[in-house]
Specification:
The structure holds two protein chains of two kinds. Chain A is an all-beta fold. Chain A has no helices and eleven strands. The chains are: A mainly beta, B mainly beta. Chains A and B meet through β4 and β5 of A and β5 of B.
């Protein structure tokens, strides 16, 4: 079974703090994604990576950056957290031959 | 127009009922279509892919109508455990990785 883990289930940070969200997958998948999910807006793609050190902006990359130094790990960085970044953050991975995305359990981030 | 549109519901149906959801998409170049299921406070999981010829998996049937640009999900003999939010997902084209998620349709199956 594919397993995607995220570093925290719940996180509370203050405005202006730098925040790191980590995601690890154990299936040697090439593709990894970061989404945020908000009521009424659904899942929106922030960034994705199709290989180590390769990344591509999604629909809402502003205020975020990512890092993929190893194939199994994809990090989302909030350089200076703001209250409008309070959300559920979901990481996903996908292999090269299947369209199925496997999601981690999510991190609920609150920025106060 | 949104790329992917779904009726948010909720659809409240009795056990044993048949229920259908539709999802419309705006990009005629979309090639791949999926239904995901998301339980309350859980992550989304793939329910089924949607093929041009339609496909069935037990009580679940998915259909694609390219001419009218919509996909559908039919659930027969609803169970309490079917209660969840069903997300329509459409590939955007220009790279197979990028998909657009609908905001979901909430189903509540009532005893």
């Amino acid at each position: 079974d594919v397993k995607v883990t995220q570093s925290s289930r719940y996180l509370v940070k203050r405005t202006g703090e730098k925040v790191f969200l980590e995601c690890v997958q154990d299936m040697d998948h090439e593709n990894m994604f970061w989404y945020r999910q908000d009521p009424g807006l659904g899942l929106r793609l922030i960034y994705f990576s199709y290989d180590v050190k390769m990344k591509e902006k999604g629909d809402i990359p502003e205020g975020y950056s990512v890092s993929r130094e190893k194939k199994e790990r994809f990090s989302l960085i909030l350089e200076s957290a703001s209250t409008n970044q309070t959300s559920m953050y979901l990481c996903a991975s996908m292999g090269g031959t299947s369209y199925e995305q496997y999601f981690g359990p999510g991190t609920r981030l609150t920025v106060t | 127009r949104k790329e992917v549109e779904q009726d948010p519901g909720p659809f409240n149906v009795p056990e044993g009922a048949t229920v259908a959801f539709n999802c419309t998409y705006s990009n005629s170049a979309s090639q791949s279509f999926f239904w995901y299921r998301q339980d309350c406070r859980k992550e989304p999981k793939l329910l089924m892919s949607v093929y041009s010829s339609g496909n069935e998996d037990g009580r679940f049937t998915a259909q694609l109508n390219r001419a009218s640009q919509y996909i559908s999900l039919l659930i027969r003999d609803s169970k309490l455990s079917d209660s969840a939010t069903y997300l329509c997902v459409v590939n955007r084209g220009g790279g197979y990785q990028k998909v657009t998620f609908g905001t979901g349709t909430k189903l509540q199956v009532i005893p």
